[in-house]
Amino acid sequence: MNQKSLPDAIPALFPKASDRDRIGSWLTLELEQALRRVQAGPVAPTIDMQKFRAELQSFDFGKPRPLEDALRWTIERMEHGIVQMANPRYFGLFNPGANFPAQCADRIAGCFNPQLASSASSPVPVALENHLVRAVAQRAGFGGEATGHFATGGSEANYTALLCALTAAHTNFSNQGARAFAGPVKFYTSRDCHIAWLKIAHQAGVGRAALRLVDTDGCGRLDPQALRQAIAVDRAAGAVPVMVIATAGTTGGGMIDPLHPCADVAKQQGLWFHVDAAWGGAVLASNRLRGLLDGIERADSITIDAHKWFAATMGCAIFVTTRGELLPEAFHASTSFTPSSISGVDPYLTSVQWSRRFLGLRLFLALAAAGWEGLGAHVERGIEVIELIKQRLIAAGWRIANDSPLAVLDAIPPADLGDVRNLVRRVVASGRAWVAPTLFEGEDVVRICATNGETRMEDVDALIAALNQRP
Ligand SMILES: Cc1ncc(COP(=O)(O)O)c(C=O)c1O
């Protein structure tokens, strides 16, 4: 028989072991040094984007370049071309400086590249994620029946909640979609919710008009009376309410909607109760603070983003539900090629995704290394940082608009510092710190959030100085 040998593997894609060792060690060192420079440098990007776009044109992919050159080029551009979440003076949106165990998890997942769609392909990762989901569910006060999975982000987890609520509301939803309902579908959350719910309504096929934004109580929390009224008005008009959502840690003000009253309304009305704890759910790690989420255990489902306050790498969300029987109903499919197709077990049959990355390892390693106590201390530290900033701003004549027990401060500057939008622009442009403008109960505020686990006293000093800089 003619023994024809195969061509070698493409070395640029699959270098030999000694090259991998050398490049891997070099990359680890380079990244560590870059991180140190990033932490000491400006928070905002400094790159000239016009020059960068021109430079990008040189990548026509006609002629390969050495990987080390491309890696060095990428690290340099990342160092100057993004808002730096790793900088301890980033007091921005819910984007953390990533914890180290989660970064290690990404390396491990990248190396083994497990396919988590099926439990037969990835028995260990699937069991590990299930174990972790149960641990998180227990922390939230759910019984042993709770189940769930990891998702790419809060939006995917919230989307899952809506699909479950719709599936629970009508047995024909899974086959007929919104047409199964006798009238237009409605679901309810406060006007201070994360507005991705609008996209979620669109994606789910019930239309953006299905989202009812309920009034807040003047302090950034959903008003249960207004909720009751909105449901009554909609029912009278022939609409079909399906879900109530409470936000535990609003994006703008870090407020926690009244969980028990929201649960009461949902239960009385026979509606799915979801708690969007994408950011605030992290307080469950702290024995001292977890009582703030009292009532979350009454939810049919919850969302927690590990890539927010747990500082996992992006994006790593957890969806937990006590109505696990709905997941196979909402996400069933059948194939002849998947190594296993066990209803209620295989992730591709119980979730939005098909191919899936080993996301849970990021939280698993962080929890394994720090324990609930360590993660809880990290969350408590964030609240201490914000408390300190609050005292310093009040002493400098600022007013605080929100009364959040969590790590978000919405602050209003004294008149001589000018308006909020210009002030924030000045701070961001200075590169000394990063904050965001937002609206809280109709008022322009500077939103300051403790997101970086390494913020020190001198970083708070730098922030306060930047905020109080006269125009
Ligand atoms: C309360 C809340 N829910 C949902 C989301 C969306 O999460 P993600 O960006 O992970 O999709 C956010 C994002 O900030 C949020 O603050």
Could you give a short description of this structure?
The chain has 14 helices and 11 strands.
Strand proportion, as a percent range, falls in 5-15%
- Give the termini separation: 83 Å
Radius of gyration: 24 Å
Q: Mean pLDDT, nearest integer?
A: 97
Compute the number of strand runs: 11
Low-confidence stretches: none
Shape annotation:
globular
Commentary on this structure:
The chain is of the alpha/beta class and 471 residues long. Helices cover 41% and strands 12% of the residues. It is built from 14 helices and eleven strands. It has helices at residues 17-40, 49-56, 67-80, 100-112, 123-139, 154-169, 173-176, 196-203, 224-236, 259-269, 326-331, 360-395, 420-430, 457-467, and strands at residues 147-151, 185-190, 211-214, 240-247, 272-276, 301-305, 317-321, 399-400, 408-412, 436-440, 443-449. Helix 1 (17-40) packs parallel to helix 3 (67-80) and helix 5 packs parallel to helix 12. The site of pyridoxal-5'-phosphate has 15 residues, from helix 6. Residues 94, 153-155, 158, 194, 196, 247, 251, 276, 278-279, 305, 315, 317 line the site of pyridoxal-5'-phosphate.
Keywords:
471 residues; alpha/beta; 4-stranded antiparallel beta sheet; binds pyridoxal-5'-phosphate
Map the helices and strands.
Blueprint: H1 17-40, H2 49-56, H3 67-80, H4 100-112, H5 123-139, E1 147-151, H6 154-169, H7 173-176, E2 185-190, H8 196-203, E3 211-214, H9 224-236, E4 240-247, H10 259-269, E5 272-276, E6 301-305, E7 317-321, H11 326-331, H12 360-395, E8 399-400, E9 408-412, H13 420-430, E10 436-440, E11 443-449, H14 457-467
Parallel strand pairs: 2-3, 2-4, 4-5, 5-6
Antiparallel strand pairs: 1-7, 6-7, 8-9, 9-11, 10-11
Helix pairs in contact: 1-3, 4-12, 5-12, 6-8
The structure holds pyridoxal-5'-phosphate (PLP).
Pyridoxal-5'-phosphate (PLP) binds next to helix 6.
